[in-house]
Amino acid sequence: MKVTGVLGTRSSGTTSRNVRTRRDLSCSSLIRRLGCALREGKISASELTSLYLKRIETKDDTLNAFTEVDKIGSIEQAKKVDARLAAGEALHILAGIPLAIKDNICRQGVSTTAGSTLLRKHLSTYDAEVVSGLKARDCVLLGQTNMDEFGMGNTTETGLGPPTRNPWNASHVPGGSSGGSAAAVAAQMCAGALGSDTGGSIRQPASFCGVVGLKPTYGTVSRHGLVAYCSSFDTIGPIGPTVEDVSYLFQAIKGDLKSMKYDTSLRRSGDRKPLSFLEESQLPSRPLQGRRFAVIAEALGPGVSTEVRSAFLESVKHIEGIGGIVDLVTSRTFQRGLPAYYVIALSEASSNLARFDGTRFGSASFTQQILESYTELRQDTLGEEVRRRILMGTYMLSSGYSDEYYTRAKCAQKQVCDELVGYLSNYDALLTPATPDLAYIVGEKTKNPLQMYAGDLMTVNINLSGLPAIVVRSCEPESNPSQRLPIGIQFIGKHFCENELLEIAHTFETSQNTRKKFPEDDMLSNL
């Protein structure tokens, strides 16, 4: 199918953009650069950790990306790495790399609140399996990052502390619910972070903050130790400055037969295609030659801002210019995904959050009747958005309504999944904008929940289908070079084919002429 009209006529040559122009900041992996510096003795893990802690101290009063910073523990971890490096041990590339963890992922002995007042005194008694994976590779864990309460939101304004701010423009939100993790990476307060994605909670913040976010195939990464929102969709994934950085984190946290302890990940480790990342200077002139992509036409329909649409079309033009074949396809189920997602997600949330009753979690005194204490606890400690979603979910599961809502939503989920998987049998990846709009102004969406829910339009169908997807920064339209807020493009891949998806995204990222990777100059550019 020849792409015309919406996307313009396919060009057989390169785009007008010079793909070999050197950018202000290289796309070279930050984690790889820091790992080499540690092994070459240019900097110690303790010094590197101290630099990041100082950065947090300087920036986080404004951005509010962290809920807790573990200064003592992170320095101790770094000293252990230094001792092992001094002894000549061969360590993992992530050894000594400072990372951050979203506040709904458990770390032993550390406060894990999921952004809720109800859990403000909760200390986790064990490590989530993904945290164990990072610790096994000697990562330095700096602290927990801010989030929307229980992951219910896409602005990171409903958590325990003040709203998190977007590092590119502090009057805008970073997205959510993993906004703290994305903001921390963009503001160079950590070299990478973990988030969780139920309906786009990694990918939307990645787009708003101009970083890379990967939502893996559902089941590839263990959910053990993740505070549940919707267990059918919850997926832990990495956020980093570049695709290569994200790939290192993904390889560390994905489940495998040898290391899995709990049945919260599928019994396969993903595709067996080895990862191969080429530097910009190593790329051929048309590195995506032979790759086939499909743009979902409905993702460019009403409700998509002019800026997002322009950036997306510029990115498609660039993909064609470096050899990719791009077709336009229609999706009859595209609009069904959003209502189906919210019916299923809120129904599961009402069930999952029933455990927070003050007996095992929370701080109910039970000086009154048990039911009164239970009601008072949840009324006083759960936020407005969480209570709204619990009420809607309980209603949709109630007698006489579950068939009308939940059963129909599950049927729609299967239709969405079948259609996307069908297209992916003919294409290497599907393309959509990451979000319908630019980052919102702080406070803009919290009073209008329906508008906030509509912001998940581009991402929820991927969760319904269990497919992997990655968001990287779009090409910027040449007509608007001063755009201050980043815009993301979403690549959707086949089940368990993360490596192939990462290579495609890396090629796109490395070959495009984008401006600054971070809002400020690279604080570690001398390494």
TrEMBL record:
It is found in: Mitochondrion; Plastid, Chloroplast stroma. It comes from the Eukaryota. GO terms for biological process: glutaminyl-tRNAGln biosynthesis via transamidation; mitochondrial translation. Its EC number is 6.3.5.7. Keywords: ATP-binding, Chloroplast, Ligase, Mitochondrion, Nucleotide-binding, Plastid, Protein biosynthesis. The active site is at residues 102, 177, 201. It is an enzyme of class 6 (ligase). The keyword Ligase applies. InterPro entries: Amidase (IPR000120), Amidase_CS (IPR020556), Amidase_dom (IPR023631), AS_sf (IPR036928), GatA (IPR004412). It holds the Pfam family Amidase. SUPFAM superfamilies: Amidase signature (AS) enzymes. One of its GO terms (cellular component) is glutamyl-tRNA(Gln) amidotransferase complex. Allows the formation of correctly charged Gln-tRNA(Gln) through the transamidation of misacylated Glu-tRNA(Gln) in chloroplasts and mitochondria. The reaction takes place in the presence of glutamine and ATP through an activated gamma-phospho-Glu-tRNA(Gln). NCBIfam families: gatA (TIGR00132). Subunit of the heterotrimeric GatCAB amidotransferase (AdT) complex, composed of A, B and C subunits. PANTHER family: GLUTAMYL-TRNA(GLN) AMIDOTRANSFERASE SUBUNIT A, MITOCHONDRIAL, TRANSAMIDASE. This is Glutamyl-tRNA(Gln) amidotransferase subunit A, chloroplastic/mitochondrial. It comes from Ostreococcus tauri (Marine green alga). The lineage of its organism: Eukaryota, Viridiplantae, Chlorophyta, Mamiellophyceae, Mamiellales.
